[in-house]
């Protein structure tokens, strides 16, 4: 279910703003990211954000970058390292550029859409706090990488960044920067945080409860939905999408 939004591959009439050159990415060299940044450019960005320093401090000495895009206009950035005889991912970001109509604003916006973002520390197991979908421990570099993503989105002329959190813990972590595009979903999510993340609750346990069908809301099993979260790239749009903090669903969540 994708409530409150719709996607448009071409610019709709009600669009506010536009990409600086939306044709660039369609005919870009396959070794650039979004038709704009070479591997050398990305290496400088990763150095400027402190990612390379952190990776090297963790013992990852051989690091390289790969960029590709496919016929569906999905652009992939991968940062790899060598661990023994195996190549392992340090970072993987898959994005596409699209126009997103937000129903509650009655307008569409050019969006830098993050389909997938993986940050990990190969070789280090997450231990007892493993999150659903997690193979290795987190790198702790989300703030650094998100700063780079915001820079790229602004450079391309996007008005917002979007992502669809596959798990509850993804939405919880990203809620520092994002709100749900659908106002009702944001109110439900706030209620879930209020009821399930209080006291000694652990994020891994709550997220796993959603995945195993043990979360109840209004007396029924509540399965984690497929919904857009959005992050505005201007103060004006941030003001428009803001939902007052007192808007929260009164019905209580619980784990059985």
Features of the shown structure:
11 strands, globular
Q: How would you describe this structure to a colleague?
A:
The chain contains seven helices and eleven strands. The chain has 256 residues and is α+β, with helices and mostly antiparallel strands. It has one domain. The longest helix has 14 residues, at 142-155. It is globular. The model has no long low-confidence stretch (mean pLDDT 91).
Explain briefly what this protein structure is.
The chain is α+β, with helices and mostly antiparallel strands and 256 residues long. The protein is 27% helix and 27% strand.
Count of DSSP H/I helices = 7
Low-confidence stretches: none
Q: Please indicate the percent range of residues in DSSP E strands (runs of 2 or more).
A: 25-35%
For the residues shown, what is the average pLDDT? Answer: 91
H/E series, N to C?
EHHEEEEHEHEHHEEEHE
Tell me, what's the shape?
globular
Strands, count: 11
Q: Give the biggest sheet.
A: 8 strands, mixed
């Amino acid at each position: 279910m994708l409530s409150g939004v719709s996607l448009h591959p071409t610019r709709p009439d009600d669009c506010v703003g536009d990409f600086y050159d939306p044709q660039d990415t369609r005919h870009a060299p396959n070794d650039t990211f979004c038709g704009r940044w070479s591997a050398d450019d990305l290496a400088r960005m990763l150095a400027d954000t402190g990612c390379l320093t952190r990776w090297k401090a963790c013992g990852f000495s051989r690091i390289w970058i790969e960029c590709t895009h496919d016929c569906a206009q999905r652009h992939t950035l991968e940062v790899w390292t060598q661990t023994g005889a195996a190549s392992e991912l340090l970072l993987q970001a898959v994005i596409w550029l699209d126009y997103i109509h937000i129903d509650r604003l009655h307008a569409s916006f050019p969006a830098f859409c993050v389909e997938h973002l993986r940050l990990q520390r190969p070789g280090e197991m997450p231990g007892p706090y493993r999150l659903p979908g997690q193979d290795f421990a987190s790198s702790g570099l989300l703030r650094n990488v998100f700063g780079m993503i915001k820079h790229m989105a602004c450079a391309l002329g996007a008005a917002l960044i979007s992502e669809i959190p596959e798990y509850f813990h993804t939405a919880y972590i990203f809620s520092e920067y994002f709100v749900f595009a659908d106002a009702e979903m944001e109110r439900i999510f706030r209620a879930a945080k209020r009821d399930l993340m209080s006291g000694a609750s652990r994020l891994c346990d709550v997220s796993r409860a959603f995945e195993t069908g043990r979360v109840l809301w209004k007396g029924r099993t509540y399965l984690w939905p497929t919904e857009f979260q959005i992050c505005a790239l201007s103060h004006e749009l941030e003001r428009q999408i803001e939902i007052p903090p007192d808007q929260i669903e009164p019905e209580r969540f619980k784990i059985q």
